[in-house]
Every structure is written in C-alpha cells, then in structure tokens.
Design a protein that fits this description.
Layout lengths: L6 H19 L10 H22 L3 H6 L1 E5 L8 H12 L2 H4 L8 H6 L1 E5 L2
Antiparallel strand pairs: 1-2
Helix pairs in contact: 1-2, 2-4
Length: 120
C-alpha cells in the first residue's frame, strides 16, 4: 500500500490548481477584478480542470507537479468520473474539505471513498 500524501503537499497542489484557474480566467477578465463574474469564472475553471483531470488522469495539474494522486480507498484504483465530480464539488464547497478525520482524510474523501497518496 502506498504512502498517503502529506498535508503540505496537498496544500501546495491546491494552490497551484487555484493559480492555474486565476491566470486562465485572466484571459477573459481583469486579474484584479473583484466582481462576481470573474470570481465565478475562476471557481468554474478550477472545478472543471480539477474534476476532469482527476476523473481521467488520477490527478490535477498541481497534484502531478507535487507528486500525488487521488485513488479509491482502500483499493487504490482510479476514481470513477462520477466520484471525481462529486469530490471536486465537495472541495468547491470548502467545508467538507476542511473537516478532517482522525485518519487525516477530509469529509469529501470519506464521502467519495477516496484518498490522496504519493506517486513519487
């Protein structure tokens, strides 16, 4: 069984994924804009990229760069697209992602029976 990813790695991956969404949305909206449309665009870009890349590649851009991936728990298979979409939705809602259990997994991971492990 592979080693679970540390919180700092996961946090760095999240930051990279959010930066990708921010700079991608900057192609359509001013970077410093605090209006609703650019904020929703950033969130939508984040959700779509993370959801699709997790569903079809096992990891988002940030996760790949820091050497972690998302798998089913405890089997460690790739997530189904439905599970990846639900996991991403729960991350976007924030609260399920910050409710951490004794095993170090967030509520979003327990709901989708997933875990983040080191890939290198």
């Amino acid at each position: 069984m592979e080693q679970r990813a540390s919180f700092p790695r996961r946090l760095v991956a999240l930051g990279i994924d959010w930066a990708v969404a921010v700079f991608t949305s900057a192609l359509f909206f001013p970077l410093g804009s605090s209006e609703l449309a650019p904020s929703l665009a950033r969130l939508l870009i984040f959700a779509v990229t993370v959801g699709l890349l997790t569903a079809f590649g096992g990891a988002s851009i940030g996760q790949r760069l820091v050497g972690i991936r998302v798998v089913t728990w405890p089997e460690q298979y790739y997530l189904t697209p439905r599970a990846a979409a639900l996991r991403t939705l729960l991350i976007v809602l924030v609260l399920p992602a910050v409710i951490i259990g004794a095993d170090g997994r967030g509520l979003h991971e327990r709901i989708t029976r997933s875990a983040v492990i080191r890939s290198r």
